[in-house]
Each structure stands twice: as C-alpha cells, then as structure tokens.
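Need a sequence for this fold. Nothing fancy.
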C-alpha cells in the first residue's frame, strides 16, 4: 500500500494534511466506514481520493452535482490520476470504454450520479469489480432535514447490504443533528465513527440589525465600513435584487445584479467582473454563490432574513475565505418572517416538509433575536458547544434587557381583545390609540386596550412583537391574514405569574461596531 503522505505530496502537491484529514484517510484506508462532517472548503475530497489510491480497486464516488464531478475528474486527470465520471450526459461509447478500464483495473476513481449507481445493471457491474471504497458526497441529500433532499439517496442504504466489506465514507458540510442522524440511519453508519470538524469561522464577525429602511441601512453599512471592497448582498426576490443593485449604483458603489431571471450572458459577465475586480458588490438571490471560490470577499450582507440557520451559515461563509477579517451583516424584520412563512405555506411541499421548514425558520429568527453570543447560537445548531466568542455584536456590546412584563401584558390583552384576528400593524395602531379607518370600522377605538401602549413607539412595539414570536409566545397565522395569535406560553404572562425581560430597540441605541471602536 502506498503511503498517504507520499501520495499527498507527490500527486496533490500539498506538504501536509489539514485538520482531521490524516486520521480519516488512515481509518478508511484500513477499511473502516465513517461519517465526515466538515465545512465547505475544509478539504473533504482528499479524505476519499487518497484512500481510493491507497487501496486496491476502483473508488466509487457518488455525487449529485454533475458540474462538480466534471471539475474533480478534470483536476484529477491533470495530476495523473485515472478518473472518470458517468452521468446522464455520458454517451454509450464513452460509458463502455470506462467500464472496460474499470474491469481491467486501470481506473482509480469513478464518479457516478446516484440514479445511475442504483440501476440494477450498474450494481451487477459493480459486483464484477474490485472496489476500493464508496464515497457518498453531499450525504445530507438523504435527509428531509437537509436543504437538498433527494429520494434516491435514501436507497444508497443498499450498498451496506450488498457490499458490506467495502468502506463507506459519507461526507457533508451540513451538520445539524437531525440530518446527521438520518445519514447514519439510511447509510448504515450507526456503529461507525463520526469525524466532526469545527464549523467555526473565527475571522467572521457577525452583526445583526433590525430593519427600518434596508436599502439605506445597507448603503451606510457599506460606505461606513467597506468602501471599495468585494462583497455579496443577498436578497429574497429578483425584484429586490434589481432595486438594490440600482440603488447602490446610484450612490457610487460598483454593484451588479445576479439572479436566475437574467440572461445567461449577463450572469456570466457579472460573475466574471465579480471574480476579476476587487471592488464589485454582487447583489444576488441565493442562486449566486455555489461553487464560487473568491477568497477576498470582505462582507456578506443579507437584507432579508435567510430561511434557515444552514442557509445563513453557508451564505455568510462566502466572506473571508482568505482567513482575513470579514463581516456577516444581517438586516431583518418581522415582515421577512411573515413572508418566508407564507412562502412555506403556499409551496407545493408535503405537510411534513413544511413543518421542517417552519422549524428552521423559527431557529433562524431565534439567532436574530438572541441577546447572547451569535456564534454560540449558530454553532449550537450544528451540534457544537462553544463559550461566548467575544467578537460578535452581542459579545462586544451586550444588549441591555429591560423588564417588559407590563408592556407584554398590554400587548397580549390587546391581541386577545381584537379576537386574535388582526396583523401586527393593526394591533400596534390600537395600542398607540390611532383611530384610523380600519381601527374605527372594527370598533376597536372603543376597546379598553385602545391607546394603552403610548409609552412605546411603533418601532419598539414591533420589536417586542418580534421577540415574542421568536420565543413562541406569539404566532403569526400566515394562512389567515397574518393575524397575531396567542400561544399556551401567554397564560402565565397574562396572569402576571411570570416576568419577562426583553431587548429594547436594538441597533439604533447600540450603534455599530466601528462607531463603538472610534
Ligand atoms: P470541500 O469539499 O470540503 O469543500 P475541497 O476538498 O474542495 O473542500 O478542498 C477545498 C480546497 O482546499 C481545495 O482547493 C483543496 O485543494 C484545498 N486543500 C484540501 N486539503 C488540503 C491540504 N491538506 N493542504 C492544502 N490544501 C488543501
Ligand atoms: Zn459572540
């Protein structure tokens, strides 16, 4: 058997292994199964490429992403590894040629799409080969919890029955606990070791602000902290991408739009400009970023709330790949939550999947509303337990909380009095004693709660409502007109049996990091 370090140096040209790579390679080369959880860019590929070369036979790599397979095969071929890929785009002649090489034992690695692998004829073909290992890349695709569920991935479990002695290595960058459990279950890895790398990105500074006027806030963030650098701004819709790119451009920032509705040529040109120049701000939907490897992105800004902690982590993780300080800046509001919930409810997803998505959305709102360390909250989502990081917005300027028991009682009674059938805006109008046409036509100016909340302004009330939604004391009924609805958790608060601490108006009072530094 060839030595792992020699292969690493002679073939791949790297002086040493990174993180847990050496351990994983040794374990798999010795015939072990494993689950590898490593953030994007962590170096998962070498974890199966090197053992595949060390062990006799051909290494089978299952991947759902054709473009990525082709890139890898090209890169391997370049360094002299005999690699090939089989997918829907492979012609019959080429496929026959690849099969011949595999049988002759001259192929080191074969990349296949899962649906191809699962074809009975292909499995028979595998029976006739000497197999080095199975690497199952993007293994989160087995799980409904993953962001990219693929039913055929669950059937990969048959590899464990049919080829029990061939090492199975599942790899993913999505490491939340339910996904992890699903991978172990479906791929028969319950008894196998889990190699978990830290998902922490120490050079990323997290800052979350409440939304008043997203475009203006974004502009002052960029002008104040990051003039003339590369950045990415994520928006929820195509329309918002275009408006925002225009607005930034009008204000002297080299901003370009990117979304799936633009022509192929425009997208290509904008992406090229972003990669080439060092001061382009890409304003994009989440369609942008997969496979983009630009090291010097100094900030990622979200001007709408991402749909889950994983999306947030992946998207903001595109900043600071070079290891130098970078910022993840997120601007969010209650309307984002309402809009995202509605998208979930109105989608074609199965009921179970809707539940999953709603739970993730709640977790994301929790990260936004937390008064404690952001990094701790984010990593807890991936099953990592760290001490407060000392360099996120909440660690650097801990939010001051106040006893909001009376205010919360007023709000909850008001929601109760309007029959739990009105959205936040209406409830706040009643609290502030604004007798506009909707309030008067509903007779809500006659309620005992009309005008009882004048000690807070509209913005403060919205902040209180958001925090209560984040803590599941209130729910937004997106099916029925976004009405605010009380949950079970309201009872002790309404009865005055429990006190509640909330954050007051956050970012306006707290200022940004650089202002505090100056
Ligand atoms: P992942 O699949 O986890 O996202 P990759 O396997 O694509 O990550 O590796 C990310 C980058 O890190 C690649 O450019 C790869 O060449 C590089 N890399 C991986 N391992 C090492 C190492 N031991 N030393 C130096 N560079 C490495
Ligand atoms: Zn922190």
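Here you go.
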């Amino acid at each position: 058997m060839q030595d792992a370090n020699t292969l690493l140096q002679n073939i791949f040209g790297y002086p040493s292994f990174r993180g847990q790579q050496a351990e994983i390679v040794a374990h798999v080369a010795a015939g072990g199964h494993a689950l590898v959880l490593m953030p994007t860019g962590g170096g998962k590929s070498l974890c199966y490429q090197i053992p595949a070369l060390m062990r006799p036979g051909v290494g089978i790599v299952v991947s759902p992403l054709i473009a990525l397979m082709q890139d890898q095969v090209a890169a391997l071929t370049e360094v002299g590894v005999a690699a090939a890929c089989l997918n829907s785009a492979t012609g019959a002649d080429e496929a026959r040629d690849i099969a011949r090489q595999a049988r002759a034992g001259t192929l080191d690695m074969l990349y296949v799409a899962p649906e191809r692998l699962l074809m009975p004829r292909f499995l028979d073909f595998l029976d006739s080969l000497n197999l080095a290992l199975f690497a199952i890349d993007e293994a989160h695709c087995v799980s409904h919890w993953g962001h990219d569920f693929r039913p055929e991935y669950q059937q990969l479990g048959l590899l464990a029955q049919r080829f029990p002695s061939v090492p199975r290595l599942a790899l993913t960058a999505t490491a939340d606990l339910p996904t992890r459990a699903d991978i172990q279950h479906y791929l028969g890895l319950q008894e196998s070791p889990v190699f978990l790398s830290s998902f922490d990105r120490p050079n990323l500074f997290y800052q979350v602000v409440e939304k008043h006027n997203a475009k203006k806030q974004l502009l002052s963030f960029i002008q104040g902290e990051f003039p003339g650098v590369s950045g990415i701004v994520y928006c929820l819709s195509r329309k918002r991408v275009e408006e925002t790119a225009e607005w930034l451009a009008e204000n002297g920032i080299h901003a370009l739009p990117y979304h799936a509705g633009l022509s192929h040529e425009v997208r290509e040109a904008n992406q090229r400009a972003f990669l080439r120049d060092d001061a382009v701000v890409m304003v994009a939907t989440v369609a942008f970023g997969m496979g983009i490897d630009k090291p010097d992105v100094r900030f990622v800004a979200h001007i709408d709330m991402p749909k889950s902690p994983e999306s947030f982590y992946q998207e903001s993780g595109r900043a600071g790949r070079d290891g130098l300080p970078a910022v993840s800046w997120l601007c969010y509001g209650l309307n984002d939550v309402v809009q995202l919930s509605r998208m979930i409810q109105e989608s074609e997803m199965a009921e179970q999947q809707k539940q999953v998505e709603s739970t993730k959305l709640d977790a994301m709102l929790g990260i936004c509303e937390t008064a404690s360390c952001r990094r701790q909250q984010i990593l807890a989502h991936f099953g990592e337990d760290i001490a407060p990081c000392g360099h996120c917005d909440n660690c650097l300027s801990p939010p001051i909380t106040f006893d909001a028991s009376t205010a919360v009682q007023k709000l909850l009674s008001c929601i109760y009095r309007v029959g739990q059938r009105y959205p936040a805006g209406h409830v706040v109008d009643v609290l502030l004693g604004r007798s506009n046409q909707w309030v008067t036509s509903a007779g809500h100016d006659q309620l005992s709660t009309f005008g009882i909340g004048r000690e807070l302004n509209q913005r403060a009330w919205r902040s209180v409502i958001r925090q209560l939604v984040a803590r599941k004391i209130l729910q937004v009924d997106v099916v029925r007109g976004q009405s605010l609805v009380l949950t079970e958790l309201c009872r002790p608060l309404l009865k005055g049996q429990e006190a509640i601490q909330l954050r007051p108006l956050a970012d306006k009072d707290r200022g940004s990091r650089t202002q505090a530094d100056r």
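For context: Confidence is low (pLDDT under 50) at residues 506-518.
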